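Prompt: May I have another protein with tokenized structure?
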Amino acid sequence: MKEQLEQLQMEALEEIKQASTQKSLNDVRIKYLGKKGPMTEVLRGMGKLSAEERPVIGELANTVRTSIQTTLDARIEEVKAIELEEKLKAETLDVTLPGRTSAPGHSHLLQQIIDEMEDLFVGLGYTIAEGPEVETDLYNFEMLNLPKDHPARDMQDSFYITEETLLRTHTSPVQARTMLEANGKPIRIICPGKVYRRDEDDATHSHQFMQIEGLVVDESISMADLKGTLEVFVKQLFGEAREIRLRPSFFPFTEPSVEVDISCFKCGGKGCNVCKGTGWIEILGGGMVHPHVLEMAGYDSSKVSGFAFGIGVERMAMLKHGVDDIRHFYTNDLRFIEQF
């Protein structure tokens, strides 16, 4: 039995030496040290040995088993190191290769229009004011001369969260908040932002859109100041050849109120399909701030006056760049976005 154990040890160590993968080493372990391996068979036969031989063979069997297991463990670590080295060589990156750059992006068309208008009005001495998109009925309607049950509210029906909280229908609440905070001091602001109205989505309408409103409050402000400001704005955005026309209109928060048209940029005012044969295109609304709105905000309407206007950013973009459907701005189609 002694010779048998020594022979097993020699054979096992030789197979371990020849094995080059973790799998083949595991096969060697099962072959020699498994439950059905020769080492187990030898140990089972020790019962047939005499009392004098049993401890000698038992000690030798343990020595052989330990030798095989220790050699196996050491060889497994060697093979793991070799396999890792080969894997690292195969996955080595050539750091001298040029990097993969991402395609440069650019501002969305609507943001471009907003930036252009902000640059213009900041250059005229205006500051930019912002406010919450979730508004109270007080600021969205009542402070703008639209008391509860006023019929003009139907034109700005919105998405209500509670009876007194809604998504703002215009950026005019920012004007009301700014006037209250100004505590009677002069104001010259524009208010860009997102607004919401319950509206049917079609080529020219959306339940969500961008708006920029302007407000000036000071002594001796007149309709002439409003017209002059809008002329500068129109010529900056659409070109020096454009003219404006003011038509009487109605807004609860301004009095008098006007709709503002520009001469058609396609036909020059002669009449075409863009201007529907009139030579003019409506672009925005405005007017002199209603005395009641000034009084609610703490101003003395007998001493100060002001004008306000509201501009739809999508409408400006559609007119300036010939976009025929407002929904293009929100579909995230790169074929559209990359044109601008």
Q: What stands out?
A: Residues 161 and 167 are 8 Å apart (CA to CA). Strands lie at 127-128, 134-136, 160-162, 165-167, 187-196, 208-218, 244-251, 254-263, 280-289, 305-312.
